[in-house]
Amino acid sequence: MPMLIKDIHSPEFAQVRQWVIEARRITILTGAGISTASGVPDFRGPNGIWTKNPLAEKFSNIQTYKSDESVRIAGWKASSERRLSSVEPNVGHLALVELERRGQLRGLATQNVDGLHLVAGNSPELVHEVHGTWRYTRCISCSDRLPVEDTLQRVDAGEADPKCLKCGGLMKRDVILFGEALVPDVIAGAMAAAEDADLVMAIGTQLNVTPAANVVTRGKAAGAKVIIMNNQPTDRDQYADAFLMGDITEMLPVLVAIPD
C-alpha cells in the first residue's frame, strides 16, 4: 500500500516533495478535481452537470445528439447560458505550468474538457486532451473546427441549432461524446509520455475511466514512481508509491515548490 499523507508539514510529504524536485521527466494525469476550485462542476457529484440537469446526459450521447433536434437545441442553449470564457485557472493549474517552466514536464494528459491547462500556459504539444475540449466546436460531417465563441454568437443571435458554415452538417462541442471513438494520436501521445516518465502524478481523478487511467499503470510498469493526489481513494491506489489526500489547491503548489 502507498504512503498515505494528509499533512503538508509531515516528513513523509517532504520526502515526496523531494521526488518531484529530483524528477527529470514528469508525466501528469488530471481529472475534474483540479478544476473544481475554478468553478467548473464535475458530472456526477452532488452539484454535477448531470445531477442538476438530467437532460445534459442525453446530449452527451452521440446517437441521441445526432437524431434528436430538441436535444441539440437544449445543448446549445445550455452552452450559451454557461460560458467558460470567465473561468480562470487556479493555483493547481499554475503549479503544472511551473513544472514545464523548469523543464521537468514530459507530458500532461487530462480527462477535463475545460481547456484550463492551455489557458494557464502549458504548451499545446505537451497537453493531451483525452476527452476533447469545450473551447472549440466541430462539424460532425466535415470536421471543420472553430472557436466555440464563434458558434455561440450565432446561438445568441437566434440560431437554435447552428449548422456548419462549410457543409451544412451538424455542429457539436469538440468533446468526445458517449458512442464516439477517442482520437488515437491523443491517446498514443499520453501513453508515450507515461512510458517515458520517471515520475507519474495523477491529480484529482478517481482513475476509473480507461484508457486515461492507464497513464498510471503504464508509467508504473516502465519503472516510474507514482503519486496520486485526490480527496478520496481511487481505483488505482495499489500502483501508488504515495497517496496525498487533501485539497489540491493547498497541496499541489507546495509539492511543486512554486516560488513565492
UniProtKB/TrEMBL annotation:
The keyword DNA repair does not apply. Gene3D superfamilies: SIR2/SIRT2 'Small Domain, TPP-binding domain. GO terms for molecular function: histone deacetylase activity, NAD-dependent; NAD+ binding. Residues 1-260 form the Deacetylase sirtuin-type domain. The keyword NAD applies. PROSITE patterns: SIRTUIN. Keywords: NAD, Transferase. This is Unannotated protein.
